[in-house]
C-alpha cells in the first residue's frame, strides 16, 4: 500500500510539473503554415510572420494573435545560391537594420550538410518587394564542422552576429558586416556556442536575446518533424531550452551551471496537455502583452503532420533571472 501511494504521489508531481506550462494564447485566422516562424512588427503596427514552405510563406495580422492572413511567397523564384534546395527555402529569420529589412533563409535538403544561409532585402516587408542577394558566406559541405542552416541575427555593443547550426556539432556564431549581408570574418573562425556531446546531437534553431546583464541563448532540441510518419520516443520530440552568458559569444551555462558546450540546457517549454513538440522559437516585444515567446507546435487534438504545425505564443517572464512561460 505504501509503495502504491508513493508511486501515485510521484506520478502526480510529474504531471503537475509538466502541466505547469501555460497553453498557447488564442490564435485567429490562418494559424497553420507556421513551421519555423519568424516575426517582426512594422511601424504601422502590422505583424509579419515568415515561415518554412513555398519559398518562405508570408502571413500578416494586425495583432500577434491574428487574424492572420496569407499574403504569398517572399521569394517566388527561390534563391540564386547554386545548391540543391534553392527552390525550396526554409528556416527564415527577419530583422531590421536602419531602414532596411533583412530576410535570412536556409538552402539545403533535410538531413544534408550541403547547405547555405542566404539573405534578401526589402524596405517594406511586403510580398513582391524582396531582392535576393544570395549567400551570406555562411556555407557548409559534407565534412564541414557545422551545418549552415537555422540562422538568427543578434546585435551587441555595435556589432552584429549570426547564430546558426543544426546537428553536426550543433550551434555556432559568426560576426556579420554592417549592413548584415555577409560575414565579417572567415567562416572557418566561427565560434561554437552550444554542443550536445552524445549522438544524435539534435540541437538547432539558435535564437539570441539580451535581457538585463545577460545574453540568453534559446534553442530547440530533439526530433522536429514527420511525427505522423514516425513518432519519437516520449521525451525525444522537440522542446525549447535556454542557456545564458554575460557575453554575446559565451561561454553559456544553464540554470544548474552546466556548460552549454557539454550538453547543458534548461527546458522552458516542452510537450504538455495537447501541445506536442514545441520549437523553432523566437522572442518579440508586443505592445499589449510585453515580451512573448513564439514558436511552432503540433496540436495533438488536430494532427501530427508538418503541414498541421500551429503558431504558438506565450507570455515570457524573466523576473527570476531565467525565462519561463
- Strand proportion, as a percent range, falls in 35-45%
**Helix proportion:** under 10%
Average pLDDT score:
93
The termini sit apart by: 37 Å
Count of DSSP strands? 19
Element pattern in H and E: HEEEEEEEEEEEEEEEEEEE
Q: What profile does the largest beta sheet have?
A: 4 strands, antiparallel
Major beta sheet, strand line-up: 1-2-3-4
- Indicate the radius of gyration in whole angstroms: 19 Å
Regions with pLDDT < 50 over 5+ consecutive residues? 1-18
Count of alpha/pi helices: 1
Shape: globular
Structural class: mainly beta
Question: Would you write up a description of this structure?
Answer:
- Residues 1-18 have low confidence and may be disordered.
- Strand 9 and strand 10 (159-164) form a beta hairpin.
- The longest helix is centred in the N-terminal third of the chain and has 17 residues, at 2-18.
- The chain starts with a helix and ends in a 10-residue tail after the last strand.
- It is globular, with a radius of gyration of 19 Å.
- 5% of the residues lie in helices and 40% in strands.
- The protein has 325 residues and is mostly beta strands.
- The protein contains 1 helix and 19 strands.
- The chain has a 4-stranded antiparallel sheet, with no helix packed on it. It has a 4-stranded antiparallel sheet with strand order 5-6-7-8, with no helix packed on it.
- The protein has one helix at 2-18, and strands spanning 38-41, 47-51, 57-61, 69-73, 90-97, 100-107, 115-122, 131-140, 152-156, 159-164, 171-176, 191-194, 203-211, 214-221, 239-245, 266-269, 275-286, 290-299, 310-315.
